[in-house]
Amino acid sequence: MASIIDGKLISKQIKDELKEKVAALRAEGKEIGMAVIQVGNDPASSVYVGNKKKACEYIGIRSESYELPEETTQEELLALIDRLNQDNKIHGILVQLPVPEHIDEDTVIKAISPKKDVDGFHPQSVGALSIGQKGFVSCTPAGIIQLLKRSNVEIEGKECVVIGRSNIVGKPMALLLLRENGTVTITHSRTKNLKEVCKRADILVVAIGRPKMIDASYVKEGAVVIDVGIHRNENNKLCGDVDFESVEPVASAITPVPGGVGPMTIAMLMNNCVEAATMFDE
Length: 282
Known about the structure:
Layout (H helix, E strand, L loop, with lengths): L2 E2 L2 H21 L5 E7 L3 H17 L2 E7 L5 H13 L5 E4 L9 H7 L11 H8 L8 H12 L8 E5 L6 H10 L3 E5 L6 H5 L4 E4 L17 E4 L3 E2 L5 E2 L4 H4 L5 E2 L7 H15 L6
Parallel strand pairs: 1-11, 2-3, 2-4, 5-6, 5-7, 7-8, 8-11
Antiparallel strand pairs: 9-10
């Protein structure tokens, strides 16, 4: 039976470490501030924003919340971002995605200063990651690296297979595993012989966006399986991209859904915000 990688426990450890760091910075007279912007009232986005505010409060980060109406224009949103870019009390700026259709997501991401891009989505942040320079890393892949390291999973020299090539998870995940000296293969919907490729993996990261697609037939005996997906099944219960019941007996370690990767995303967002207060101090 696989050992369960507990994202709730590990994210709590990270948040407690950050709480101490923030207290130390405050003792030096430095308060950390994060601005969270939500346009419209998408219910899932509202839940995420609420969780981010709670995490800020727990760690001691001052959060400013901007809940803008659905009809907010792109110009108004960009003007707010520009103002926050100039505000020395704000170290991180987060625009909750998706934004309404009349606003161009790409333009919004590029408008955030790379020094305050705590989501790690700005092209400059992505470029910095690819050439090993300092910058912010997308929170979900950064969280997965922490899950592996804090669960004593060796990455160096291991065959790592990432299923999915999104800008938010798949691509940065591959770069981070490479940075840890893993041997990395990226697979996707057009990959031939997907099953055979996956069965080579010592570490399999699944971010394909299809409920329970990956069963035991994709997994090598003793592999570590990280499930990034989150869906609701026909009974309205949460499930991932991995068929947990099928894979758990084969894997050596596995993340559950919920309680695996999910909590780590917010923990790493908080980590990026704390880093933002010191990373670019020259």
